[in-house]
Write a structure and sequence with these properties.
By secondary structure, this protein is of the alpha/beta class. It has 3 domains: 13-80, Orthogonal Bundle (Arc Repressor Mutant, subunit A), CATH 1.10.10.10; 96-168 and 267-299, D-Maltodextrin-Binding Protein, domain 2; 171-264, Periplasmic binding protein-like II (D-Maltodextrin-Binding Protein, domain 2, 3-Layer(aba) Sandwich). Helices cover 46% and strands 21% of the residues. The strands form 3 sheets. The protein has a 5-stranded mixed beta sheet, sandwiched between helices. A 5-stranded mixed beta sheet has the order 9-8-10-7-11, with helices on both faces. A two-stranded antiparallel ribbon has the order 1-2. The chain is elongated, with a radius of gyration of 24 Å.
Length: 300
């Protein structure tokens, strides 16, 4: 079955590892930390792979290089293969499993960290790495198997990725009473576009919220956590998820109803690549644990 594959020299784990390193770093220079000896080695190994498969795997792009479509496909196949070997080795050596999870900065801080830092989880033989990533990046990296799980808001992902919904949330408008003492005054300022706002632009864009696109915010941040921190200085209003609210005992903030905003329901969804589950049976239990634990925290 594999006789043709091994009829010639040029294919090896070291060469595939070099290709993956370049794919992850984006260039040979970055993949080798500027080491000229390693640069020469990686260039030679990728050239040997190209000779073996008789196809271009990398191409020049600006001052650097990037993988061709064939290079990306070989990197994906290699990553899948090497991940399977790595998981098999860990199982033989009874080593701890490591899982990478991608999510928004807000979700990581509000939900993921409390779950993953609990004493029960810390006593287990499982290690987690959390990374801030957008929905699009999570989708791409799940396909590449450089993330094991992701938490997203979008309802669909390209095949073969799968989703499980485990919670929902809405957006609310909060206004410091130092700006407006009552809802009527704040509503008028909002309609007249006079309301001083801090907006978490990246996370709002991820949610597809364009209701405030015609407003000119005084401050723009990346995520809801930063927007809430700015709002708590009591000089800016902000749109926040209903799971992020000012101190319940504080009377310094006013919640203003915006029906067109509050009518939209957003969902938390756990995403994964089913190929990962076939490669690593332990991932099935991790998926179920994350869905259950995060769903419980979201409901609370």
């Amino acid at each position: 079955m594999f006789s043709k594959l091994f009829a010639e020299s040029g294919l090896s784990l070291d060469r595939l590892k070099a290709l993956l390193a370049v794919a992850a770093a984006g260039s040979i220079v970055k993949a080798t930390d500027g080491d000229p000896v390693k640069q020469s080695q990686y260039s030679r190994q990728i050239k040997e792979l190209e000779d073996f498969f008789r196809i271009k795997l990398v191409e020049r792009y600006g001052k650097g290089i990037r993988l061709t479509s064939s290079g990306k496909e070989l990197a994906r196949i290699s990553r899948f293969f090497l991940l399977g070997l790595s998981n098999f080795q860990r199982g033989c050596l009874t080593e701890e499993q490591t899982f990478r999870i991608g999510a928004s900065a807000t979700f990581i801080r509000r939900f993921l960290l409390p779950v993953l830092s609990s004493p029960k989880v810390l006593r287990s033989a499982t290690r987690y790495i959390v990374e801030t990533a957008s929905d699009d990046e999570i989708e791409r990296r799940l396909h590449d198997l450089t993330l094991d799980f992701g938490v997203i808001t979008q309802a669909e992902l390209s095949r073969p990725l799968q989703l499980k919904e485990f919670g929902q949330w809405r957006l609310k408008l909060w206004i410091p009473r130092a700006l407006h003492k009552n809802e009527k005054s704040a509503t008028v300022a909002l309609k007249e576009r006079r309301l001083s706002l801090v907006l978490a632009r990246k996370e709002l864009d991820t949610c597809g919220v364009d209701f405030f696109n015609d407003h000119e915010p005084r401050l723009i941040s990346d995520n809801f956590l930063e927007a809430m921190a700015a709002m708590e200085e009591k000089a800016l209003a902000s749109i926040l998820p209903d799971f992020l609210v000012p101190d319940a005992k504080s009377k310094a903030f006013l919640q203003v109803r915006v029906p067109t905003l509050e009518s939209r329901v957003f969902h938390f969804r756990l995403a994964w690549n089913p190929r990962l589950l076939r490669l690593n049976p332990h991932a099935v239990r991790r998926r179920d644990f994350l869905a259950e634990s995060l769903g419980q925290v979201a409901r609370d």
